[in-house]
Specification:
By secondary structure, the protein is mostly beta strands. It has helices spanning about 5-30, 35-45, 95-100, 255-265, 335-345, 460-465, 545-555; strands spanning about 50, 55-60, 65-75, 85-95, 105-120, 150-165, 170-185, 190-200, 200-210, 215-225, 230-235, 245-255, 280-290, 295-305, 305-315, 320-335, 380-390, 395-405, 410-420, 425-435, 445-455, 480-490, 495-505, 505-515, 520-535, 570-585, 585-600, 600-615, 615-625, 630-635. A hairpin with a 2-residue loop joins strand 18 (about 395-405) and strand 19.
Length: about 650
């Protein structure tokens, strides 16, 4: 026999034996014999119990693989669920490239119908952070303790994953997961992509997290819903629920309400009932910075249909909450956004089963705190808003520029400009400064804001129509030109307008205004006039019943019932008036003084005096109920 034949026969024999071993290995090797060692190894690596209820099997085709049924991996101590992982069937194949480098890694891992529960204990430690068992040791310079898993290719079939937010206790549940993943380690790098139903909302996703670097883990996330898409590229400081996240976010949708509803539903919250006015195309493109104490969006462009907004907004929590930023809006429909914002407020993080905390009522006999004092202590605001056009109440406000600052409980308005409908120009400034001689240490009590305010225009009727004030019954010669000028001062407890000058159709008045920011809100106005022609503003008399008929009707009217007392929390408008000369029905009334107040529908007349009314004196006191609907008079005349 030639040498070549002997070599050929030897080769066939060797490969034949190998083939027999490969085919017969599953029948020769008892995989179940290694089950106790595998359970101990997992216990040593993670400190948790691994239970393999079904048989452990070893197969060679189509590739070498170890598989098992009914596998359970225990949850962390202190968490609610008994198991972190339940798998109906699991199959694992080795990584040949890793074996050639002398390392044991899983090349392919298949999980069929896994049920994965992610949560944190009372101390906020997530259950995917593992600690070695009592018998584990770690040599100096060795890798960090715990469980280190590397999987070349992970496939999830018909999986379920749930995550409970440790702060809000809301649960996000993903079902029908069909995904492929690659896991370098549980601390990164790893990636996963596929499809799922997140709290009932169908979506596709692609998530990648890289190895840790000095700037964090490179991170990317893409989520697509039937109504829109979300893409994020940036960094995460660590693999934990409280990680700091920075990067670029892009959101686009053809149906805003549907997209928001899907995202809200996916996070386990109740879907808000949006008004139809907020539906339409929506897009956001900007940088985000999210941490436990900071939420920032910068260099962003937000658009809804044909409206856009650009700018930067940062909310931080230090000694107190703060808001800083600037917004630029070429054109905005305010009513549309006002319909959306309260719905977004419904998404505030309130634990399931709990209700939002309400401020405590003040003790009996004690005044309610001022509006500003209800802000959290240390609240700081610095916000600038610029808008070319703002649609509101079926009118357009133009050339808007507003700067607002809140510091130590006092509001300052460094800039306020706007052109209201009717070409009514509004301008105001208010600068914060310490109150002279003040020694109080209460927040905001030693700070005041001072400045100027003016409002003027020659088409007052158009402005009043925009405010939905009916002037049809007033002669067209009245309510045309209006001007207001004064000095503004505000503190944490209220605001004052002094050196006030008001001109209405050439008739001039001086006085002051004060507003108390408490409950009830009290506005007090004081005016002095030399002369005022009231005839210019009296309603035009319309043809009607003859005087006798009117008199008969009034005579038949029963005495008015006592007006119902107003709600003590309704705002109060008080007016004190002094007028040298009042023209009424072409008659001159001199030395007119009035002291009245309006709360709800009740008008109180503390005093209304006329020194000379056709040669007589007049003093009126009492009240008028249901002023707006059907006045009921309870007055005394002397």
């Amino acid at each position: 026999m030639s040498v070549l034949k002997r070599i050929g026969l030897a080769t066939v024999a060797v490969f034949g034996v190998l083939a027999i071993l490969v085919v017969g290995a599953p029948y020769i090797v008892d995989a179940d014999a290694y089950k106790p060692a595998l359970v101990r190894a997992v216990k040593e690596a993670t400190g948790r119990e691994l239970v393999i209820a079904g048989p452990l099997r070893f197969s060679m085709f189509p590739e070498p693989r170890i598989s098992a049924r009914q596998v359970h991996f225990a949850n962390a101590v202190g968490t609610e669920g008994a198991q972190m992982l339940d798998v109906r069937w699991i199959g694992a194949s080795p990584s040949w490239s890793a074996l050639l480098r002398g390392r044991l890694e899983v090349g392919r891992l298949v999980l069929y119908q896994p049920n994965i529960t992610l949560e944190s204990d009372a101390d906020g430690v997530p259950n995917w952070q593992f600690k070695p068992g009592a018998g584990a040791t770690q040599a100096a310079g060795a890798p960090a303790s715990g469980f280190h898993l590397a999987v070349g290719a992970l496939k999830i079939v018909r999986g379920t994953l749930s995550y409970t937010n440790p702060r809000t206790r809301r649960t996000v549940k993903a079902e029908d997961i069909e995904a492929t993943a690659s896991v370098g380690s549980l601390d990164g790098p790893f990636s996963i992509s596929g499809t799922a139903r997140l709290n009932g909302a169908p979506l596709t996703f692609d998530f990648k997290l890289g190895e840790a670097s000095p700037t964090g883990h490179p991170t990317s996330l893409s989520v697509a819903l039937p109504s829109g898409k979300l893409d994020f590229t940036g960094t995460a400081s660590k693999v934990a629920p409280d990680a700091d996240v920075k990067g670029h976010l892009v959101v686009s949708t053809d149906g805003l309400t549907e997209f928001v509803a899907a995202l809200v539903s996916a996070t386990g919250q109740a879907v808000p009932a949006f008004d139809g006015a907020v539906s339409g195309r929506f897009a956001f493109d900007g940088d985000i910075d999210v941490s436990a104490t900071r939420l920032g969006v910068s260099n962003f462009k937000l658009s809804m249909d044909n409206e856009t907004a650009t700018g930067t907004l940062v909310v931080e929590q230090g000694k107190g909450p703060s808001l800083r930023g600037h917004l630029s809006l070429p054109k905005v429909d305010l009513e549309r956004w006002l319909a959306l914002i309260p719905r977004l407020g419904d998404l505030a993080a309130v634990p399931q089963g709990a209700s939002a905390a309400k401020p405590p009522a003040p003790p009996a006999g004690q005044a309610a705190p001022s509006l500003l004092s209800r802000l959290p202590p240390g609240t700081e605001v610095s916000l600038v808003v610029v808008a070319a056009e703002l649609a509101y109440r079926k009118g357009t406000v133009r050339d808007i520029a507003v700067a607002i600052e809140i510091h130590d409980g006092a509001i300052a308005v460094p800039q306020l400009k706007a052109v209201l409908p009717g070409e009514m120009v509004l301008q105001a400034t208010a600068k914060a400064s310490p109150v002279a001689g003040s020694t109080t240490k209460a927040p905001g009590q030693g700070i005041q804001a001072t400045g100027d305010i003016s409002l003027s225009g020659t088409r007052l009727r158009e402005t009043l129509a925009w405010l939905q004030i009916d002037t049809a019954s007033i002669p067209s010669t009245g309510l045309q030109a209006f001007a207001l000028r004064g000095k503004l001062a505000s503190t944490a407890s209220g605001a004052q307008l002094t050196d006030l000058t008001v001109e209405l159709d050439g008739q001039r008045a001086t006085g002051s205004v004060s507003v108390s920011l408490a409950t009830p809100l009290i506005s007090a106005v004081t005016l002095q006039l030399d002369r005022f022609d009231l005839d210019k503003y009296l309603p035009v008399e319309r043809p009607g019943a003859p005087p006798s008929a009117l008199a008969d009707t009034q005579a038949a009217t029963p005495p008015p019932a006592a007006p119902a007392p107003p709600d003590k929390n309704d705002p109060v408008l008080a007016l004190k008036l002094k007028m040298s000369n009042l023209v009424l029905r072409q008659q001159s009334l001199t030395a007119v003084e009035g002291d009245v107040s309006l709360q709800g529908s009740l008008l109180k007349v503390t005093s209304l005096k006329v020194a000379d009314l056709l040669g007589a004196k007049l003093d009126v006191q009492g009240s008028v109920g249901d002023v707006a609907t059907g006045p009921r008079y309870d007055l005394t005349f002397t």
